[in-house]
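Researcher: Structure for this, please.
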Amino acid sequence: VVAIVLILRKVPPAYGMIAGAFVGGMVSGVNVADTVAVMMDGAKGMVPAILRILAAGVLAGVLIESGAAASIAETIVRKFGETRALLALAVATLLLTAIGVF
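Model: Predicted structure, token format:
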């Protein structure tokens, strides 16, 4: 609740969530050291997912900027044929986005 109130009051979301987690830990009766330790463990668990998303964004940007994405999409459309253009675009989108995520 604290985080939502802070975010609605234009506090940056990252700070609002940190403050909300800290207040939640303190209200529940956990001491400061344990509250901060739990918050740090939670942040460590999120880092791999955040880095994966950032890497996927960088890869997508490079593919788009270099023209590789258009080349891949055009090749897939040619292989599937004009009659299955929607399917070809769906497969191209799947390949271009899945490569960055997985």
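Researcher: Any notable elements?
Model: The chain has a mean pLDDT of 83. The longest helix spans residues 32-66.
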